[in-house]
Design a protein that fits this description.
eIF3d, 4 strands, alpha+beta
Length: 194
């Protein structure tokens, strides 16, 4: 089976400059643009169909291939003129905007009057009564725990509180779990001597 036949296209070299030459009439409508005015790099631009496929703009690129100064002029000059470097570093504050490290105390009463510190200032006793912190409530928690453990069999228990949840956990612990080996061996020696 013979391979595909491919004919090499006719390529005419432009000895006087860069880009298409005047004799290539078949490439007049191709959207060829130099990348920049200073760089002699070329690109084929806008093959998406918005400009190249739009028949209303047939003469858009023909005017660019004239002779003279603007022969390969970059069409979108605004792209180069509006380039900005994005810099995320903070600008230093001028001397008149810098704040001292510690605020001076003679400004504090004035700031409290102006409402910059909207904190409530109440006596501790009032605050405690608002939160219902009194001895009856405190003893109520202790009473509830005592009643809970009075209903359980005799033994050792461990109470833990989950720091992320309002949960108390109660674990039953074996009798000899916190005794060290030395204490156990001393107890054995005491029993053997008796």
């Amino acid at each position: 089976m013979p391979g595909a036949h491919f004919e090499a296209p006719l390529v005419i070299e432009n000895k006087d400059g860069w880009g298409p030459i005047d004799g290539t009439f078949q490439y007049k409508d191709m959207p060829y643009q130099p990348y920049s005015k200073s760089d002699q790099l070329g690109k084929v631009a806008d093959w998406t169909g918005t400009v190249y496929g739009d028949k209303r703009n047939n003469n858009r690129y023909r005017s660019q291939y004239g002779v003279g100064v603007g022969m390969y002029q970059y069409i979108h000059e605004d792209d180069e003129n509006t380039f900005q470097l994005v810099d995320s570093t903070r600008l230093p504050k001028p001397a008149y905007q810098k704040r001292t490290r510690f605020q001076q105390n003679h400004f504090r009463p004035q700031q409290m009057q102006n409402g910059r510190f909207p904190t409530m200032q109440k006596a501790f006793v009032e605050f405690a009564t608002q939160m219902a912190l009194n001895m009856d409530n405190g003893w109520g928690i202790v009473r509830a725990l005592v009643d809970l453990f009075m209903g359980k069999p005799d033994g050792r228990y461990l109470i833990t509180k989950d720091p992320m949840k309002p949960t108390l956990r109660i674990y039953s612990i074996p009798e000899n779990s916190f005794d060290s080996e030395d204490d156990a061996s001393d107890d054995d020696n005491d029993q053997q001597q008796n």
